[in-house]
């Protein structure tokens, strides 16, 4: 069996998008990540932002699918291994001087992610995503429906808990019990127009000489 480091190396070399990585793709090296509960729109924002900036999006679902192919069974392979591999992916991107997006909720892992970025000479820019609960619950009903029908590759193959609403309630309770990082870079209300808010984010990135 491959070691954790060997698995991380194999994953990195297997990602087709990595072949498109352009070192020094920004004026200053940075990663964008999020504080936001289940259903708030992290993946949607990541995809839209990546399309505008040409960034690679790192996400744990992709790692879990890779581990499934490598013989680690279940919808939730060893979470410590997933976290280790996620850290190694970010380290690889930092070392190749590649700014990127981390499609993950940093509420529990902010300090570690910040240390990883700082240790590699990069900035971690955290976007706080908010949305009214009634809109999130409606989104989660639609997501659950897709999972039940087997029509969502992202959620049926890798999986969330049996009930995405239960996951939302658990994660929201965790958010309520933990403080926000002091240095939130930007806030986006995902119940409102994405494009105008992303325009303002990109303007700020340029003003701050990240782009």
Structure characterization notes:
The protein is 51% helix and 13% strand. With 211 residues, the protein is an alpha/beta fold. The chain has one domain: Rossmann fold. The chain has a 5-stranded parallel sheet, with helices on both faces. Helix 1 packs across helix 4 and helix 3 (60-69) packs across helix 4. The termini are far apart. The model is unreliable at 155-162 (pLDDT under 50).
Can you name the CATH architecture? 3-Layer(aba) Sandwich
* Count of discrete alpha- or pi-helical segments spanning 4 or more residues: 9
How many distinct beta strands?
Answer: 5
Strand order of the largest sheet: 2-3-1-4-5
Query: How many discrete domains?
Result: 1
Task: Name the beta content range.
Answer: 5-15%
Unreliable segments (pLDDT under 50, ≥5 consecutive)?
155-162
Percent helix: 40-55%
Gyration radius, in Å: 17 Å
Terminal residue distance: 42 Å
Structural class: alpha/beta
Shape field: globular
Here the CATH topology equals Rossmann fold
Short description:
By secondary structure, the chain is α/β, with parallel strands linked by helices.
What topology emerges from the helices and strands here?
Elements lengths: L3 H11 L15 E6 L6 H12 L3 E2 L1 H10 L9 H17 L4 E6 L4 H10 L3 E8 L2 H17 L3 H4 L7 H13 L7 E6 L4 H14 L4
Parallel strand pairs: 1-3, 1-4, 2-3, 4-5
């Amino acid at each position: 069996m491959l070691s954790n480091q060997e698995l991380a190396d194999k994953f990195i070399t297997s990602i087709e998008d990595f072949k498109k990585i352009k070192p020094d793709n920004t004026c200053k090296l940075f990663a964008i990540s999020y504080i936001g509960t289940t259903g708030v729109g992290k993946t949607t924002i990541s995809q839209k932002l990546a399309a505008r900036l040409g960034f690679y999006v790192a996400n744990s679902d992709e790692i879990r699918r890779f581990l499934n192919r490598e013989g680690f069974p279940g919808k939730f392979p060893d979470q410590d291994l997933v976290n280790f591999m996620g850290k190694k992916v970010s380290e690889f991107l930092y070392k190749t001087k590649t700014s990127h997006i981390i499609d993950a909720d940093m509420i529990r892992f902010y300090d570690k992610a910040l240390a990883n970025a700082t240790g590699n000479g990069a900035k971690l820019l955290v976007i706080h995503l908010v949305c009214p609960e009634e809109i999130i619950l409606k989104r989660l009903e639609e997501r659950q429906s897709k999972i039940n029908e087997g029509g969502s590759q992202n959620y049926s193959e890798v999986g969330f808990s049996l009930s995405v609403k239960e996951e939302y309630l658990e994660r929201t309770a965790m958010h309520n019990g933990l403080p926000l990082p002091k240095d939130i870079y930007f806030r986006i209300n995902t119940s409102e127009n994405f494009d105008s808010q992303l325009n303002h984010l990109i303007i700020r990135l340029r003003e701050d000489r990240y782009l």
